[in-house]
């Protein structure tokens, strides 16, 4: 029988360090989350390094790792030891010249429950991801695990209701969003409040429109590794929302934290019975959604 209730966690961290140190740090924080009762635990986007996409530099490809190497080996053993599901976002080297922004979903027995490759790739000032990442080719996926059915999207995917919808339609109970998003320090005073508010609002909207739990795991800290630049101030504020968009847990802008909340499938079903958005979808009228623009 599926679990009617289970606890999920997102871990908010400063990851402005070398891969070996970030790995040790994340293992320690996952242990802590599990000790607090978390059963499905997500790390932030590209956990193993600083956010290198602030520049276009071929040397940064050395940060990538092949499938089932360092990250998978470490977190597979940890998941099996703790009996938890772990979402591990990492920089994947698929082959020479093809790299992805990816996430393992590792099940409680240490096996790979699923793999997700980020579908939407941004190219903004100091978020030059198109230089590094090939768009995902695995589609939007709900992954059955021994704890529950989870969907994993990554950062820029947050802004696309189609991604949330297609994942939720496959039965996802929770949408996890490993994230690396922050302010350009020189813009924060003028635009920061609206930028952060939009980020929360769109994901809360996904929770409401799909009757799902949403969990976003962001970084914190100023990452200013390039000379003569202001860097990126990651705004933290990781959160977990329920199926009506209600905030169940929220982190600060600047502290390393673990957020834990309970997924209640009876509540989710009740919300969907009373707000039957899936029932009333006019799928016969949605054909144009696959067009770039309706001219």
Summarize the structure.
Residues 6-265 form the CN hydrolase domain. With 295 residues, the chain is an alpha+beta fold.
Considering the chains and any ligands shown, give keywords for the structure.
295 residues; alpha+beta; Nitrilase/N-carbamoyl-D-aminoacid amidohydrolase; six-stranded mixed β-sheet; 5 helices; 17 strands; globular
Write up this protein.
With 295 residues, this protein is of the alpha+beta class. It has helices at residues 19-35, 70-82, 161-168, 188-210, 265-274, and strands spanning 5-12, 40-42, 85-95, 98-106, 112-117, 123-124, 127-128, 142-144, 149-152, 174-178, 182-183, 213-217, 220-223, 232-235, 239-241, 247-250, 257-264. The strands form 4 sheets. A 6-stranded mixed beta sheet has the order 5-4-3-2-1-17. Helix 1 (19-35) runs parallel beside helix 2 (70-82) and helix 3 (161-168) runs parallel beside helix 4. The termini are far apart. The mean pLDDT is 97. This is N-carbamoylputrescine amidase.
Secondary structure layout plus pairing:
Layout: E1 5-12, H1 19-35, E2 40-42, H2 70-82, E3 85-95, E4 98-106, E5 112-117, E6 123-124, E7 127-128, E8 142-144, E9 149-152, H3 161-168, E10 174-178, E11 182-183, H4 188-210, E12 213-217, E13 220-223, E14 232-235, E15 239-241, E16 247-250, E17 257-264, H5 265-274
Parallel strand pairs: 1-2, 2-3, 9-10, 10-12
Antiparallel strand pairs: 1-17, 3-4, 4-5, 6-7, 8-9, 11-14, 12-15, 13-14, 15-16
